[in-house]
Each structure stands twice: as C-alpha cells, then as structure tokens.
C-alpha cells in the first residue's frame, strides 16, 4: 500500500512545469470538492467559495488508504482551510497538507489557477 502513497508528492507554485486543465469551474460544487485524474493520480479539487479560493490535494486518505478526500467536508481550523476525510474525520490543511490531528503524515497539495472559466492544477511532471 505504501507504493500508492509514493506517487503523490506535492508541488509548490514556483516548481510548476505543467498546468493540467482539469475541468470547467461550473463542474465543481460550490464549497465542496470533486476528483479529477491526472496520469496515474487521483486529485481532489475544492472550490472553497466562502473564501473565494481553490485548493487541490491527493484524493487518497493516508489513514485507511481510500480515495475519498474529494468527498470530504471543507471548513477551517483557526483560520487554516481544511478538509475532513468523510470516513474517519482525519483533517488536513488544504494549504500545505499538514495533518491537523497530528497523528498522520501530511498529504500532497498542488497549486490551482482559474483561467477563462477553467480550473488548472499545477504539477512538476
């Protein structure tokens, strides 16, 4: 199972080499997420409309190794935007992937940009 986690490594904005055109803005729920596939990765993309921001992270929850984070609830923890796994309620920062419960490794996060009504997710490869 660890091999599955190994393919997810986050990307910082300054390291983006590829902007993947994920879908139209209208294809994503307001204040919620959806899953897109990039190569062999499942990526959770969130339209955090209340904050007027977009976030992307791996869809794989490292707790039970399930592809479910895109279906998690989003909110904030002391000003940090977060997603809660819908199965186990483990929470992760949408900004840097940190596990806010402190009992798991961080998840991979990716930059997002919106251009001409489309959502793009940034990757190193």
Automatic annotation (TrEMBL):
CDD domains for the chain: Rieske_NirD
Residue ranges constituting the Rieske domain according to the UniProt record: 20-121
UniProt keyword list: 2Fe-2S, Heme, Iron, Iron-sulfur, Metal-binding, Nitrate assimilation, Oxidoreductase
The keyword Kinase belongs to this UniProt entry's keyword annotation: no
Pfam families: Rieske_2
InterPro entries on file: NasD-like (IPR052034), Rieske-like_NirD (IPR012748), Rieske_2Fe-2S (IPR017941), Rieske_2Fe-2S_sf (IPR036922)
Protein name: Nitrite reductase small subunit NirD
Name of the gene this protein is made from: nirD
């Amino acid at each position: 199972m660890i091999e599955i986690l190994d393919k997810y490594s986050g990307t910082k904005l300054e390291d983006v080499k590829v902007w993947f055109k994920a879908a139209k803005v209208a294809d994503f729920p307001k204040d919620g997420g959806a899953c897109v596939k990039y190569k062999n990765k499942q990526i959770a993309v969130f339209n955090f409309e209340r904050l007027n921001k977009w976030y992307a992270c791996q869809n794989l929850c490292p707790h039970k190794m399930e592809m479910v984070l895109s279906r998690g609830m989003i909110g904030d923890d002391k000003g940090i935007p977060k997603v809660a796994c819908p199965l186990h309620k483990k929470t992760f920062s949408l900004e840097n992937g940190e596990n806010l419960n402190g009992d798991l490794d961080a998840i991979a996060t990716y930059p997002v940009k919106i251009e001409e009504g489309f959502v793009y997710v940034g990757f190193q490869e």
